[in-house]
Write a structure and sequence with these properties.
The structure holds 2 protein chains of 2 kinds. Chain A is mainly α. Chain A contains 14 helices and no strands. The longest helix of chain A has 32 residues. By secondary structure, chain B is of the alpha+beta class. The chains are: A mainly alpha, B alpha+beta. The structure holds adenosine-5'-triphosphate and magnesium ion.
Chain lengths: 276, 331
C-alpha cells in the first residue's frame, strides 16, 4: 500500500524538487547557452539568457587553438585505462578482504579510505619529483598510473561491498567442484558481481574523466586530457568566456552522455543488494 | 575408493575450541551420519573433511593419503549444501557441467554425463532454466546432480533437506538412500533430524560439544547407548530418566526407560501417576504422566483415549531399563 499523502503536499514537494534540480543544473545550462554566444554577448551586462546571435564560431576557435580530438583521446585512454587496471588489481584484493579476511582487514580498508581524505597537494612535491626522475611527466602511462592509484581505494571499497553480498556458500561450492582460485574468480565471482563491477567501472571512469588536479599538474602538451584542455582556455585577460564554455561543453559532453545512457545500470549497481 | 580417516583432529576458531580431539575411521562405501544438537560442531567437522576449513592440528587421510593441507579442489570430494549453493548465473545444464568443466573433461563426455544425470534425477526438461526458476526440490536435485557427475571419492551433505517441506523430505530421503545403494560411494550426511539419521545411516556419529559420544550402527545406538547423552538423543520421544532412590533400587545413579518400553494399565503396575497431557497421533498416543519421579512419557497405541487427570499405572520392561553411573556412563 502506498502511503497516503495530501495532494497539496505532493504538489509542494514536486515544485521544490524541480526548483532544486534546476538550481543544480543552472551552471551547466548557463555554460551550454554561453557556448553559443559571441564573446561580447557573453560578458554583456545585463546578461542575455538565450544567445541573441547564435554562433558556432567558439567551437571552431577552440579546435584551432588546442587540439580537442587529441585531448579527448587522452581522456578516454586515461579514464578507461586506469579503471580497467584498477579493476584487475582490485578484484583479487576485494576477494581476499571479503572472503578471506584477517583481523587487520578492517584496518586496511579504513587506512585505504583515509588516503582519500588527505589533500592531494600534500603529496604533490614527492610525486612530482618521482615522476620527473622516472620520466613519467606528461606521459599517458604515467597519468594512467597515478589515476589508478588515486581511485584504487574507491574501486576496492565498492567491490568489497558488492562481494560481501555474495553468499560464500556459492564460492565454496565452486571450490568443492574443483575450481582453483582463478576459476572461482573468473567463472563464479565476477559473473555474479557484474552489476556491481559495471557500476564501479562507470563511476571510476567518471571520476577519472573529471580529475583535474593531477592531470593539470603532471601534463602539458602531449598527455593533456580534457580537464587540461579546459583550463588552457581560462586566461586572466581578453575575451575568453564563450570559448571557455564551448571547451567545457565539449569536455563534459561525452561523459554526460555516458552517464545518461548508463544511469539505470548505475543506480542498480549503487543500490545492489540493498533490496533483496 | 573413499575411505576417510581422522586422527586427533582439533579445530579452534581463535581462542574458541570447537572440536577438541576427534578420531574416526569411515570405511569405503559407508553411509555415515553426523548427528548432535545445534552448535555441537557437525558442520565444522564436515567442512574440515571437505577442506573448507583448516585443521588446527591432527591429520585427515583419504584412502590412506594425507590431505590435511590439500585445498578442497584437490580432494576429489563433492558437497551438497543446505542452501543448495547453485550458480545463479548459469543454467541447470551449466551448473551440473561445472565440475566436469573444471576437470577439463572433453565436451562430448560432459554432454553424455549431464544428460545421464539429468535423466536419473528427473531434470531433463529443466536443463535450460536458471536455478531461480526452479522449486526447492528441483534445486536440491540439481545440487545432487552437480555432485554425482564427477564421480567423487565421497559425498558430503550438510543438512541438505532442511529447507524442504515434510513430504518432499521423505521423498528425497529415499532418493538419497537409493542413490547410495546404486553408487556405493562413501557418503557423510549431517542432520539434526534423528529419523533421517536412523533410517539412512549405516553408522551414526553422535556428537556433543565437539566430542564423539558414540559411533555405531543405528540399532546399536538405540539398544546399547554408551551414555546418558546418546540414550537421550537417539529415540523419539526421548528416553525418560529417573534419578534418586528409584534408580538406587537398580544399583545405578540414574536409570532410563524409553516411552515404548513402558506398559500402561488402569488397575495395577510398578509406578502410579496421573495423565497430564495426551498427544494423539492416530497411529500412536503419547501420554505425559505426572509421577513421583517427575513427568514420564509413555507411548501406547492410537486407540487409547486418556484425558487430563486420569489415574494410570506404569510398568517398565525390566529387560530394557538402562542404568547410568554418576558420570552418565552406561553400566
Ligand atoms: N567461523 C567461525 N568462527 C567462530 N566460531 C565458529 C565459526 N564457525 C562455527 N563456529 C562455532 O563452532 C561451533 C560449531 O558450529 P557448527 O556450525 O559446526 O555447528 P553445527 O553442529 O553444524 O550446528 P547446527 O546444527 O546449528 O548447524 C558453534 O558454537 C559455532 O558458534
Ligand atoms: Mg550446521
Amino acid at each position: 500500500m502506498a502511503r497516503r499523502v495530501p495532494t497539496s503536499t505532493r504538489i509542494g514537494f514536486t515544485i521544490l524538487a524541480w526548483a532544486i534540480a534546476l538550481l543544480l543544473f543552472s551552471p551547466i545550462l548557463w555554460t551550454i547557452l554561453t557556448a553559443f554566444k559571441t564573446e561580447a554577448e557573453a560578458i554583456a551586462a545585463p546578461p542575455t539568457f538565450l544567445p541573441e546571435t547564435f554562433t558556432l564560431e567558439n567551437f571552431g576557435a577552440v579546435q584551432d587553438r588546442s587540439d580537442y580530438i587529441k585531448h579527448a583521446t587522452n581522456s578516454i585512454i586515461v579514464s578507461f585505462g586506469s579503471t580497467l587496471l584498477g579493476l584487475v588489481i582490485a578484484i583479487p584484493a576485494a576477494w581476499s578482504m571479503a572472503f578471506a579476511p584477517t583481523k587487520r582487514t578492517k584496518d586496511i580498508l579504513m587506512w585505504m579510505l583515509s588516503t582519500k581524505m588527505m589533500p592531494a597537494v600534500g603529496v604533490l612535491i614527492p610525486i612530482y619529483l618521482i615522476f620527473r626522475d622516472l620520466r613519467l611527466l606528461d606521459t599517458l602511462h604515467g597519468l594512467t598510473l597515478i589515476m589508478t592509484l588515486i581511485n584504487l581505494p574507491i574501486i576496492i571499497w565498492m567491490l568489497y561491498t558488492y562481494f560481501k553480498e555474495i553468499p560464500v556458500d556459492i564460492l565454496e561450492a565452486a571450490r568443492m567442484d574443483g575450481a582453483e582460485l582463478w576459476n572461482e574468480i573468473t567463472h563464479v565471482l565476477v559473473p555474479m558481481a557484474i552489476p556491481g563491477i559495471a557500476s564501479t567501472l562507470l563511476l571510476n571512469v567518471i571520476l577519472a574523466w573529471n580529475e583535474a588536479f593531477w592531470t593539470i599538474t603532471l601534463t602539458s602538451g602531449r598527455a593533456g586530457t580534457l580537464t587540461a584542455f579546459i583550463s588552457s582556455f581560462s586566461s586572466p585577460q581578453g575575451l575568453f568566456l564563450a570559448k571557455l564554455s564551448a571547451a567545457s561543453l565539449l569536455a563534459i559532453a561525452p561523459i554526460l552522455l555516458l552517464g545518461w545512457f548508463s544511469q539505470k545500470q548505475l543506480v542498480r549497481g549503487l543500490t545492489f543488494g540493498a533490496v533483496k | 575408493m573413499g575411505s576417510i580417516s581422522l586422527s586427533h583432529v582439533n579445530k579452534s576458531f581463535g581462542d574458541v575450541q570447537v572440536i577438541p580431539d576427534i578420531s574416526l575411521e569411515i570405511n569405503d562405501g559407508e553411509f555415515v551420519v553426523f548427528v548432535g544438537p545445534s552448535g555441537c560442531g557437525k558442520s565444522t567437522l564436515l567442512r574440515l573433511i571437505a577442506g573448507l576449513e583448516d585443521t588446527t592440528s591432527g591429520h585427515i587421510r583419504l584412502d590412506g593419503q594425507d590431505v590435511t593441507d590439500a585445498p578442497p579442489a584437490r580432494r576429489g570430494l563433492a558437497m551438497v549444501f543446505q542452501s543448495y549453493a547453485l550458480y545463479p548465473h548459469m543454467s541447470v545444464r551449466d551448473n551440473i557441467a561445472f565440475p566436469l568443466k573444471m576437470a577439463k573433461t572433453p565436451q562430448a563426455e560432459i554432454d553424455r554425463k549431464v544428460d545421464y544425470a539429468a535423466r536419473t534425477l528427473n531434470l531433463a526438461s529443466y536443463l535450460d532454466r536458471k536455478p531461480r526458476a526452479l522449486s526447492g526440490g528441483q534445486r536440491q536435485r540439481v545440487a545432487i546432480g552437480r555432485a554425482i557427475v564427477r564421480e567423487p571419492k565421497a559425498f558430503l551433505f550438510d543438512e541438505p533437506l532442511s529447507n524442504l517441506d515434510a513430504a518432499l523430505r521423505v521423498n528425497m530421503r529415499l532418493e538419497i538412500t537409493e542413490l547410495h545403494q546404486q553408487l556405493k560411494t562413501t557418503m557423510i550426511y549431517v542432520t539434526h533430524d534423528q529419523v533421517e539419521a536412523m533410517t539412512m545411516a549405516d553408522r551414526i556419529v553422535v556428537l556433543n560439544a565437539g566430542n564423539v559420544e558414540q559411533f555405531g550402527s543405528p540399532l546399536d545406538l538405540y539398544r546399547k547407548p554408551a551414555n546418558r547423552f546418546v540414550a537421550g538423543f537417539i529415540g523419539s520421544p526421548r528416553m525418560n530418566f529417573i534419578d534418586g532412590a528409584e534408580a538406587g533400587k537398580h544399583d545405578a545413579h540414574s536409570i532410563g526407560v524409553r516411552p515404548e518400553h513402558i506398559r500402561l494399565s488402569t488397575s495395577e503396575g510398578a509406578w502410579q501417576g496421573v495423565v497430564n497431557v495426551s498427544e494423539q497421533l492416530g497411529s500412536d498416543t503419547f501420554l505425559h504422566v505426572q509421577t513421583d519421579f517427575g513427568l514420564l512419557t509413555v507411548r501406547t497405541d492410537g486407540d487409547q483415549t486418556f484425558t487430563h487427570g486420569d489415574k494410570v499405572w506404569l510398568t517398565p520392561d525390566p529387560n530394557r531399563i538402562y542404568k547410568f553411573d554418576a558420570a552418565g556412563q552406561a553400566i
